[in-house]
Batch of 3 targets.
Target 1
Amino acid sequence: MTSSFHPPIRTLMGPGPSDVNPRILEALSRPTIGHLDPAFISMMDELKTLLQFAFRTTNQLTIPVSAPGSAGMECVFANLVEPGEKLIVCQNGVFGGRMKENVERCGGTAVMVTDDFGAPVDPKKLEEALKRHPDAMAVAFVHSETSTGVRSDAEVLCTLAREYDCLAIVDAVTTLAGIPLEVDAWGIDAIYSGTQKCLSCIPGLSPVSFSPRAAAKITNRKNRVQSWFLDTNLIMGYWCTDAKRSYHHTAPVNSLYALHESLVILEEEGLENSWKRHQLNHLALAAGLESLGLGFAVEEGSRLPQLNAVSFPQQIDEAAVRRALLAEYGLEIGAGLGALAGKVWRIGLMGYASNRKNVNLCVSALGNVLNAQGHRCDVSQAIAEVERVYV
Amino acid sequence: MTSSFHPPIRTLMGPGPSDVNPRILEALSRPTIGHLDPAFISMMDELKTLLQFAFRTTNQLTIPVSAPGSAGMECVFANLVEPGEKLIVCQNGVFGGRMKENVERCGGTAVMVTDDFGAPVDPKKLEEALKRHPDAMAVAFVHSETSTGVRSDAEVLCTLAREYDCLAIVDAVTTLAGIPLEVDAWGIDAIYSGTQKCLSCIPGLSPVSFSPRAAAKITNRKNRVQSWFLDTNLIMGYWCTDAKRSYHHTAPVNSLYALHESLVILEEEGLENSWKRHQLNHLALAAGLESLGLGFAVEEGSRLPQLNAVSFPQQIDEAAVRRALLAEYGLEIGAGLGALAGKVWRIGLMGYASNRKNVNLCVSALGNVLNAQGHRCDVSQAIAEVERVYV
């Protein structure tokens, strides 16, 4: 006989999932009701309004996809791309590469604009590509590259896309609630995010939003969307109607309770306050890590406060450090991914996990483990540097 | 400011979601851990074994898709169908039609074998189609049609498929744990189910399983799977490997806790006992409903015990009855779907919700509401008929 699974208690400071707020776990476990229950329909309406608030948009087509962030990415490309269409995809990390995969699997062509892993997307390169490819239909880029901890200038990139009459498609999986994001003001046409990052909700849902311009393109497609499950023309009959809701698929009822609660918490805090909190805790973490003798893989101006790509002296056995943090402190930090595998740690300070307690825990635990492995550093000095930021 | 959402307490006896066992809701709310945490990886291994147990299979490629049942359906077709291939799709309800949609969106051709809504798939019609279309690659059918409450003879249909050298693709969304299902013994090549039916788990996941023959077809595809998110070639690197797990997408950690718990409960009860329990409660419900003067839309030999398509006298305002059940008893039963909309109720007795208490509640509440709406029936007699079945 198999036993029930009782997970160990961790502090999640990797690239996501981040620690889930206990209020959200409690909401998640409320009794399931039907996906066509009038009470559930009212909750869905609130959820759309809350997502519009978080995205800063009035887009009607703003909903949570019933699957993780990579399905949100696929939802955006599968709905917008028709076979034979050309898109410019900016890649400066793992997730830009995944965008290319998606474009190609939808029958489109991806013109790649590449920057180094660890650098932001270069607007000049994008503009050159836009000039060379006047037939491009859209520009796609990752706002917050979870694989490298880099923030690109979404406003500038979207403005360029608009100048060259392209739709702007933005990956905001790690962005939402962590750093400023203005879907309407920046002219973003299609955007997807995740719930398990700065919303501190459970993994498994992907909020998406489409501008009226993007929605019109979907409505006027020549070919059917290749995914039935992700076809927004069908999903809208359930999520976006004042008339009788039509059944499409069974909504993930409890996960949507959790997302609702996480957005209620965000509304209580205020979006700007959430952005400020992420920045403050990032600065405190950075002060502590630098005092320990660690560096950043990303230039100061492009660092994501919610995901810190931390470099370390070459002689450190980075996997052993992560194992010790997990075993001795229940603390999860992330390994590098793609081109940065083995070269950085990814330390997340996302949502609920972005707090003074966690910054202190991370700096002291990391310092202790480094000392135990023979890399001398002054933990109390590092903690003092952390606390100085909060004063 | 938006308030937290507190759902009303319902008894879910519709076509799904069914009532979730409180043990599963509690498991769902356990603290989130990372999707690459060693403790989580161990849980995943158990989960695969438990799914093999529930499906009665030794298929290695047996995993939960990170999205609802309709994504499980899409996972099966997107992986197995290459452009230009022909499949025979049996349709006797709404979900057979959705299979056709999926085949076509994957670039395949669906040869339809149709039976009336409310009738099982006719093996003779299938055999005729197999003879007419020797180039067909697969046969697809719905084992338990959730839209009509009909069970088709999966063993016979799979045997036919195998005789004509076709893969057998089976929709078991409402089947799993409710009625006998033998993936290996019946020669099923690809199957998908849902968690919100007879597993009594939350909606949002779809267990799937592929036979070695089906897995080989996927591995040897000429074209890439059109969905990145559902590409089992990629998913296997995370779920089905003894080597280092590679990141594909962030697993829906908490939902997987819930699925694990629901399968632990199923293992404790035993699969045969679960089938017997569903049958017994169905007989009791049927006795009570017939005593109230209601009928069944499906012939006795083809009725699903877990989903009862109930017919009623024409003069009844069926929507008013459902509204009264919900408002006065917190009891959800389902409306008809597709060709049976307005003609039947769909009363589910699925998983945890399939119990003596619910059968009594449903018969007495329905009788009381019918009386209140002027349709005379003898509730105490009906309850006596229910109880007679349990003696």
Target 2
Amino acid sequence: MSEQRHVNFNPGPSTLPLPALERAQKEFLNYEGSGMSILEHSHRGPVYTAVHEQTIALLTELLSIPPTHQILFMQGGASSQFALLPMNLRTDSHAGDYIVTGTWAKKALAEAKVVGTPHVAWDGAADGTWTRVPKQDELDLSQNAPYVHITSNNTIMGTQFFDFPDTANVPLVADMSSDILWRPLDISKFGIIYAGAQKNMGPSGITVVIIRKDLLEQTRTDLPKIFRYREIAAANSLQNTIPTFPVYLVRNVLMWLKDEGGPAEIERRNRKKAALIYTAVDESGGFYRCPVEARSRSVMNPVFRLATPEMEKDFIAKAADAGMVGLKGHRSVGGIRASIYNAMPVAGVEQLATFMADYQKRA
Amino acid sequence: MSEQRHVNFNPGPSTLPLPALERAQKEFLNYEGSGMSILEHSHRGPVYTAVHEQTIALLTELLSIPPTHQILFMQGGASSQFALLPMNLRTDSHAGDYIVTGTWAKKALAEAKVVGTPHVAWDGAADGTWTRVPKQDELDLSQNAPYVHITSNNTIMGTQFFDFPDTANVPLVADMSSDILWRPLDISKFGIIYAGAQKNMGPSGITVVIIRKDLLEQTRTDLPKIFRYREIAAANSLQNTIPTFPVYLVRNVLMWLKDEGGPAEIERRNRKKAALIYTAVDESGGFYRCPVEARSRSVMNPVFRLATPEMEKDFIAKAADAGMVGLKGHRSVGGIRASIYNAMPVAGVEQLATFMADYQKRA
């Protein structure tokens, strides 16, 4: 079966490490001899509890999460965090500074506007496009903001933060849905990191939130209990029934990541993969064009264009014929997008780079 | 592997139909020859879309859902619906009538209190216990309530509604997390039905909401967009990335349910299973005792007691030795609870009934 698997450049849900899937398949009906599938275990029983704690331990180890921070597992995806963040942390006068680098950042801002009064610290669409992330001196940060929100990697635009904004004493909050774990990270710089699992950590259906514990004390209590970060933290994410299988699969992916050498090794591979594509683009003599400013080019979602939408359609179709799927750019922007998250092997990207060169020769 | 599976009486997540699991296991690495796992497909691509629509079609068929109602898939479990229901449907003066028949109903009421002003139409704890559901003439219903909320089956207390309250023109809302699909249902009686999947429909991580379409027009717009029923309905539940694998597994469970004969046949089996246990209790000469009033005894979660907590502990341990697990009552009430949702075979309950008789003989 596995031989017939495609090279899958889907932007999310996206390709998963084969060893993580094979492990799940093997024990699908009877988890570790426990007499039932992991899907059928109680979320409060010892078998799932061990998986839960192992997932937390692996994330803590792989991201070097300090004791100042706590990991939460939540539901609803990053889009729910767009709402829950200001619901939990706005003040009566301020619902956060927002650095708007793309579609998802704009959606986060829109939800903050529903529940309070956010401030736009930078918006790349003022240029007419979102082709870069801002520099520090471009930011209009508030003095009294409860937090500054960024989207660390912009999947649609193909841009990424490599240096994070300096927000002084204001907590930095990052939506890292599409680049968490792409490299080692200094967690101490962040007040909150949140990430839907379905791009770089596992399947859809579970959201990881890493929150500085002192911020829990500052969270509001005028929202439903099920949505309060402080309650979720107090219950170790077991306030109600957790999506056990998504957590279990995240665990399998983290086990794979550790086996492969962890974030330092995966960063090396990720940089190599991105370089393969950007080099193919830059050395194509203009046949392929990347609209993104060089210093902001995403390592996770390189985007590029051909001369016409018709050529792009043809490129995508011929790539699919060659077993490489998911290369169509987001419907809002078009073009080509190669989502090359951690689970995409170097060999898959080499195949794409070779295809790009061959396609250009034949064109 | 499957031979070694236990008879699993877990209250949720709970046992799943073996054919539904086996299907998932077989195609886990490569779904229907598509070159990837269903987990790795885009939630907007044709392969997942077909699964999504098939799940909706099966639910529509099995529950005879009329065109007046729409199915939504949401995240966060029933506990999130406790909050989202009043957030969407309260009026400025009223956050719903609540019929409090147990722990979960009480939690639903508590969340309504956070966002508005609910009214308690009946509370079984006024008796000091929750050992029954109310009769129609006991209800103190408001004239101007936006809805009346019930918990159709109370997993912890082992009680269940068999006739639903008459709420006249006020929409009836039911948390059916633990008994949806246990029998054919007249959906037209309900304004909203919601149910976490992990008891009677599939794994944890997906919540089904069945809403009368005219109520969508009455929902509020002063809450975050991601939480608005009307937006989720307009997007066919694809406002953001849906937990694709949980939906897929619900589909597999519904395919199994249809193959087995649908709700009419499953009702026959469910009544047979419940009768096996209640008969064993009632004919034990007081060795086993069911605290629940006869007309309110749950078909899904029969609960019973032995003379002492020590005997109950021994019963649970010896049952586990015999391969029957998950029989411990909820930590808040103790005792024995046999959760016998749709996926529990009659043979599993026969084994338990035999064990109960043998245990009594040996005692």
Target 3
Amino acid sequence: MSKATSTDLYEVTMAQSYLREGMTGPATFSLFVRELPPDRGFLVCAGLEPVLAYLADYRVDADDVAVFASVTGQRREDLAPLLDLEFEGEVRAVPEGRVVLAGEPLLEVTAPLPQAQLVETYVLNQVSHQTAVASKCARCVLAADGHPVVDFSLRRTHGIEAGHQAARLGAMVGFAGTSNVAAAHAEGLAAVGTMAHSYVEAFGTEEDAFRAFARSRPGPVTLLVDTYDTVAGVETAARVLRELGLGPGCAVRLDSGDLGALAVRARAVLDAAGLRETRIVASGGLDEFAVDDLVRAGAPVDTFAVGTRVGVCADAPYLDSAYKLVEYDGRPVMKLSSAKVTAPGRKQVFRRPGQADLIALADERPPPGAVPLLEAVMREGRRASPRTGSAEAQKRFTADLAALPPRARAVRAPVAPRAELSPRLVSLTADVRRYTEARFTGDGHRSVHPAARPGTGSRPARREGPVGPCP
Amino acid sequence: MSKATSTDLYEVTMAQSYLREGMTGPATFSLFVRELPPDRGFLVCAGLEPVLAYLADYRVDADDVAVFASVTGQRREDLAPLLDLEFEGEVRAVPEGRVVLAGEPLLEVTAPLPQAQLVETYVLNQVSHQTAVASKCARCVLAADGHPVVDFSLRRTHGIEAGHQAARLGAMVGFAGTSNVAAAHAEGLAAVGTMAHSYVEAFGTEEDAFRAFARSRPGPVTLLVDTYDTVAGVETAARVLRELGLGPGCAVRLDSGDLGALAVRARAVLDAAGLRETRIVASGGLDEFAVDDLVRAGAPVDTFAVGTRVGVCADAPYLDSAYKLVEYDGRPVMKLSSAKVTAPGRKQVFRRPGQADLIALADERPPPGAVPLLEAVMREGRRASPRTGSAEAQKRFTADLAALPPRARAVRAPVAPRAELSPRLVSLTADVRRYTEARFTGDGHRSVHPAARPGTGSRPARREGPVGPCP
């Protein structure tokens, strides 16, 4: 069975119904984040690469149909119309690593309605989670203010897959390494690590442990010094490093207690031993806030190892993301209920130097000097752009970050810029709202859908001349 | 490459060193949660089944060695001692579904030191995440007070693997179904689902959408009524259901707005239409707190669909879990630094009717009427107990839940019971602490390890007669 079964049941039910009704016209779904979580001044786009891999391989095979039949209590024949269905649509998306804001589409999928619907769950899952974690990691890099940050999160992420992503996403925003062996290998990242408290405890003394650890590997070592008494541990580490002629490239790791105060004492012990080039690694419950505190206090920490809180995105473990139908068969659509109103139409985001981003309709001309964020990355179900790795994503991130207002980059109480909406998008939204509301008051059959009016729809209406209510 | 590479680098480094030093004596690691998160009165054990599957298959193959060599910059020959290493140890664990408290071991691994160390990352990852999510799901079931709860979380979990677990763990504590097709199929759960707002929008009118949806499947349907105007949506749904002769088994779903008030209005509309057997499903940002509010307010909601906040365990997305060495080669060990002191020795937890749980040493006799929570589930690397499914886990959960004090089961401001420590465990902890501290003040060589004193160690010392300091 393929990844096609990694979906919510209703995607299958709806796709079945669409096929039965002959509703296979082109649909555009727009994926965006309604509002940023507190303490976020921006988001870093992520998840696109896994999504494109999924879509390129998407195919409902016979095993999938059997699973669908089994969980819905239908016969396989009932599900036959889904067999061999592939994703043949187009994807326009903001590349991984770019900075985006609330309301800006991260990607838009345009495909025959059943296809665009069936892939919803997987696409939302990947982009939501990965964008959340990438954005958290980015804040750690900002807080570290030039000091290396490494990922130690695998033991507490939500499964192994999430741990792999945390390592990949950290690298995307500039992490210097990861403890995750499989991820380091697969993504070409630096693998980093030290020793556990258990290692020290397994030996008769801390000194025996440090000596054995140094024996076990030829290069520089990092010694964990807080198993029993941190300052005594640093003294022991200093003695061992000196006696073995080590030092440059080596480090001690502090993993508990008042990391700032202990780093000062550790630095003094190391310096007094002539180990000025031996560095200090801090770990243990760190996130961007704790790193910020240490950096602002001038703690002599050289490297920050972040784990649990970053890998699970502890303060904002999900995004208020949506994958919303914005156009079907040439007709812009929207949802009206409660606070979750969505803007209709295929969109583009224009980044304007020195100005707020502009969310516009996809066929609008870019304002002077503006750069469109959404790029065609998939056409007819095939990648239209080469796979890009962490290095390219990091370049994009670095460039976008530099262009953000300082208040958006703040670790504490950041202020997220707001995108503006183009006049045509505002006008189309008002028109579609009026049209949709009119249909409820019984005037619907006299109203003309905005897509049928020249110059207001997100693209020309498919039918010539005035038309009645949509299908 | 096998799952052996899904690990932190330091596990590999330490295992290499242990093998080099000939330190392959039996080690016991204990996995426990130091403190419960706020708003938790208990934890539900989970993650054991995936852990046992992992351990039973654990084997470092040639590809793994190549990966280890690649990420550490060593030659494959340097890593040869790890090749073909399997897990040959024993696991004693609390079965999935049972209730545990702070400080109680969820599992203990006893194996040759390199093996017990190498599996740390994966074991911690699975148990920490799954116990967190199972505990969150359990609170939803408590809040729903007898109403069915279903899982809609897949679109926002931290990856697909985490989504699968959310579905499995929900079922373990009594969820009535999941939207996750693959998980429903693999775990034998009821697959549930309705329609999306996009479905309604894709049709010309809400009524067209409802009719098409009813056409698409033979049985009862659930209609999403809040795409445009909720009350009007319920009226339309009622009309369609009546005209099609449907009703019993059918439902309307409310996904936004003031769910309590809208449920009252929806109930009134349905009742007025003679659809007293048509139910109301509520969804949209629900967690145990929101469900509790609705239930306490007497909202006429029949089924609660929980998603994002539950699947990512939003208020406590990680546990303060630890996998700590408690004994090596017959010698109980402990960590002393800062607040993270660990109790030494192999342990057992005794559940005593009407009394607090007792955390004791593994070889202590159970108090009268007490039941030991940790069971031998793996011996010599093979399962010693059959795989148990969600149904058995749910039975254990239901029984344990009933035995908890009411304040532990409270959704708001729960009070978690605290386990007591046996006098022998307290005494051993004090002895090992004294012994370990003495080694730092230079008295170590005159001190005798507690394991060598009769009646205090967690099991008889391996050597006859008095011994000197450990290895």
